[in-house]
Amino acid sequence: MELKEVVKRLNNFAPTSLAESWDNVGLLVEPHTKRTVGVLMLTNDLTEEVMDEAEQRSVNCILSYHPPVFRPLKRVTSKAWKERIVARCLEKGIAIYSPHTSYDALKGGVNDWLIQAFEATSVVPLQQSSQPSQHSHQVTIESTKDGNGAELLDYLRQRLDKSCSFYMRNADSSLVILCNESFLPTIVSLLSGRNDHTEFVITKLEQVPLDGHGMGRKCNLSSPVTLKEAVDKIKSHLGLPYVRLALAHGATSDSLIRSVAVCAGSGSSVLRGTRVDLWLTGEMSHHEILDATHQGISVVLTDHSNTERGYLKVLQPRLAELFDQKVQIIVSEKDRDPLQVV
């Protein structure tokens, strides 16, 4: 498959607009001559050891979750390891693509995989992704708590223009309509004329929320588990023999965990202010951990990339399908977390 088609499909799979504004995502290194991609390798970090592997396995494109080119390069020489990787890729005709925080925010992405360590209900993003609005207003209908959401959705779809958008918001089972101002009188008339006393709120939009997309995740557990059981679930899901645990003030290993929030990588800025029983992330500072434990929140740290790397195995078959089985998708065998417990 031609590289430009590979990039197009990757961008459609997880739009780069989902990424944080500070991030550097998308196609980072493009060979000058046109190339086809027969083998695409997934890695969490593009190190020189992984680069050696890519050359040995005849890789044409590397999808590196973390962008190997983040800050601007002033030169490309053999003196610095990141510059050497760029030079080798250009010389060998190997493209580099990095999704990073677009995969973090993606519905079904890294954070959704991470929270699967638990039997969760009501999984929602901590920071909702949004995009510039194509609609001027949002109508939020709260009456679906009575179980009439599906019936009401069909009722409105049959009576409103196709330019209106509808979705169910998982966090509170509300029905949301996105529309332009000209449709508001019709919507108000339809809702006001129902016998079920439908309650609704109209909001003027600047940005449209993207349902299910966003940074971090939080959830309630389907049934409480002890803190020790929660830690065991995390270690099993991530394939780790050890994690670091900070106990909430007054907590023990038998304390019950009913709610969890996760953030892949470095999670303090995303997790801050989230009131749950347990935080799971890769790394946080000493003082941020103290703040959490004094608020009654236990914290599990796994080291940065251990909250991310396991997603590559889930991503592998999804990308094979995305490329119609025309591109071989392999996962690096040399990629690993640089830290280990000794």
Characterization of the model:
The structure is a single chain. The protein is an alpha/beta fold and 342 residues long. It contains eleven helices and 17 strands. The chain has helices at residues 3-13, 48-56, 81-92, 101-105, 110-114, 149-157, 184-192, 227-238, 268-271, 286-294, 311-322, and strands spanning 26-29, 39-43, 61-64, 95-98, 120-124, 127-132, 137-141, 165-169, 174-179, 200-204, 207-215, 217-226, 244-246, 256-266, 278-283, 298-301, 328-331. The strands form four sheets. Strands 5-12-14-15-16-13 form a six-stranded mixed beta sheet. Helix 10 (286-294) links the parallel strand 15 and strand 16. The longest helix has 12 residues, at 81-92. The mean pLDDT is 93.
Instruction: State the end-to-end CA separation.
Output: 44 Å
> Tell me, what's the shape?
globular
Uncertain stretches of 5 or more adjacent residues: none
- Average per-residue pLDDT, rounded, comes to 93
> What about the largest sheet?
6 strands, mixed
Quickly give the structural class. alpha/beta
Rounded Rg: 23 Å
The share of residues in helices is 25-40%
The helix count comes to 11
Q: Please give the order of strands in the largest beta sheet.
A: 5-12-14-15-16-13
> What percentage of the residues does DSSP assign to strands (E)?
25-35%
Oligomer: single chain
Q: SSE order, as H and E?
A: HEEHEHEHHEEEHEEHEEEHEEHEHEHE
Number of strands: 17
Topology:
Blueprint: H1 3-13, E1 26-29, E2 39-43, H2 48-56, E3 61-64, H3 81-92, E4 95-98, H4 101-105, H5 110-114, E5 120-124, E6 127-132, E7 137-141, H6 149-157, E8 165-169, E9 174-179, H7 184-192, E10 200-204, E11 207-215, E12 217-226, H8 227-238, E13 244-246, E14 256-266, H9 268-271, E15 278-283, H10 286-294, E16 298-301, H11 311-322, E17 328-331
Parallel strand pairs: 2-3, 2-17, 3-4, 14-15, 15-16
Antiparallel strand pairs: 1-4, 5-12, 6-11, 7-9, 7-10, 8-9, 12-14, 13-16
